Amino acid sequence: MDAHTLGIAVISNLLKSCGYRVCIGNASIAEAVDEISKIDNITMLTKWIHTEKISRLGFSYRLDPGNAQKAFGRVFHLLKENKLFTEQGGPLKQIYFAGLPESCNRIRREYEDQVPVFIGDETPLESLQKIGVPGDRIPNTVLQGSAYDIDRMSFARNLIQSGEYHLEMPPAKGGYPEYGTRSDTLMARIGNNRRLNRPPLMRVHIGPYNPDYKEARKEFASWLKILAKTEFLDIVSIGSSQLSQSDFGSDWGDKPNGGGVPINSEQDLLEIWEASRPMLLRTYAGTRNIPHLASIYEKTINIAWHALSFWWFNRIDGRGPYDVKENLHQHIETLRFIAASGKPFEPNIPHHFSFRGGDDYTYVLSSYLAAITAKRLGVRYLVLQTMLNTPKYTWGVQDLAKARALLMLVRELENSSFTVFLQPRAGLDYFSPDIEKAKMQLAAVTAMMDDIDSGHDRSPDIIHVVSYCEAVKLATPEIINESIQITLHSLREYRRQKRQGLMDDMINNKEVEHRTNDLVTKVKAIHNLIEKHVKTPYNAKGLYTIFYKGIMPVPYLWEGRDEFKESVKWETALVDGGVKIIDKNKKPVNPIQRIEHIFTKH
């Protein structure tokens, strides 16, 4: 699940599931290919191809496009010179290239149909078809797992090609006295939407990049005024800079801003609030003096809700100065403040485990633990963010199961003093660099969002819209509005087609139901084991212990690997469209038995 080798691992597992033997070049082969012009190195590559009886060769290069074209060109030329292709009497039927979009474009222009290219946005089924695997060799699990994704993309393709989403008008706003004032709240806005049967609230994360601090704030203010005037957007999530989060209120001197909107004073925040009327505002939590900054957000931008990451945004991911223990203490204190303020809390947590190779049980468990902790500390409202397409190779049926399992578990906590608002979003690296395909992907993932709580037109409450251009550039107000138009139109059209029987209603889909039940049952069992063996699981010490013991694995943690050696020692892989921990024989590990062993061992 390492980000650098995930594509190779996924392709390898897919081909093995089709009954093929796969060889991945070791370090010696990689070094030989890197300097292929040396005679000994082409000999080594040739010998490897013949010895392993390789008939199809994939070449992956993830760095500079110019170097990619040269490196691949040298290999391709020498393979031909040494007569390794079948038309020359050799073993190679085909060669493929995978790399950055521009690298793929260069290879495509130079070699045309001779070399199929992989840009990284292919589905599992598309990948197998592009490689040339016959349909009768593709397992039913892949075909069935892909059917839902294929249907949604077909829906999305027709929707985008029709262009009708351009006619989508902004939904009506307001309708209650507090709207856009200092007294406005997320709860009032959601309640008003539900009462008037309006679409979900649209939330977007926004922040232009400009190295000049003053100009950056000026540009951001102009963006806010445009977005407020056009009325598509309901909630602005301020894309504040790293420096704003770690060093708010101090003398920045010549410290690098790190991208995003530079905010360093209460006055900066008040100016943002004024420019954004009547939209709701929220922003990143601080990474230093976290409760204090939360209180500043309350009195300046009347923050719509607070988001905390518990085990993240600190030293282990390079996002803050605290160690994990201190970070958890600060977040627990901030939760107490959030509870007193009456504002909602969003666990900005599960996808951070997925980014670092965590399994799907961990994805669900981490957010569930955060929700329980928040409720016990007196928080009354929870914004449940679920990031779909993470990792992007996850099958749609598994994505849906993860979202449903998390929602089911957290909704079991609901009572008169604890309410859950669902907020799905697309994955961080989901979108294709091909803009038209990315628009289709946005429509397709919106359809999945509607399937999470299928049958309830008032769910989700909020959609975090990720703009379709994210793979290639920052979103401007024009692109943000178009992305919201696609989202609104997709949601309405998908619901219409489901009502008319033109699209499958996934509410009773057996495959999704099976996967959801598996996640819910096992996460509940793990949670019971935690409550049995961890004395106080819902304070900073208990939450640290859960992570420290390896209950939530992160095999590709960047920093702190010595401290969290029990968490990084596990291997994960994509299995039947989901992420699972595997043993030395590459077989899935039973998560309950694994955690029982952790507690009995210690």
Lateral strand order in the biggest sheet: 6-5-4-11
Strand fraction equals 5-15%
Task: Find the count of extended strands (DSSP E, 2+ residues).
Answer: 13
Structural class: alpha/beta
| CATH domain class of the domain at 6-138 | Alpha Beta
CATH-defined topology of the domain at 6-138: Rossmann fold
Quick one: overall form?
A: globular
Mean pLDDT value: 94
State the helicity in percent bands. Answer: 40-55%
For the record, the CATH architecture of the domain at 6-138 stands as 3-Layer(aba) Sandwich
Total of helices? 22
Oligomer: single chain
Low-confidence stretches: none
**Gyration radius over CA:** 25 Å
Distance between the termini: 28 Å
Main sheet properties: 4 strands, parallel
Please provide a written account of the structure:
With about 600 residues, the protein is an alpha/beta fold. Among the domains are: about 5-140, Rossmann fold (3-Layer(aba) Sandwich), CATH 3.40.50; about 525-600, no CATH class. The protein is built from 22 helices and 13 strands. The chain has helices spanning about 5-15, 25-35, 40-50, 65-80, 100-110, 125-130, 140-160, 185-195, 215-230, 240-245, 265-275, 290-300, 325-340, 350-355, 360-375, 395-410, 435-450, 475-500, 510-535, 540-550, 565-570, 590-600, and strands at about 55-60, 95-100, 115-120, 200-205, 235-240, 280-285, 305-310, 345, 380-385, 420-425, 460-465, 570-575, 580. The strands form five sheets. The chain has a four-stranded parallel sheet with strand order 6-5-4-11. β1 (about 55-60), α4 and β2 form a beta-alpha-beta unit. The longest helix is centred in the C-terminal third of the chain and has 24 residues, at about 510-535. The radius of gyration is 25 Å and the shape is globular. The model has no long low-confidence stretch (mean pLDDT about 95).
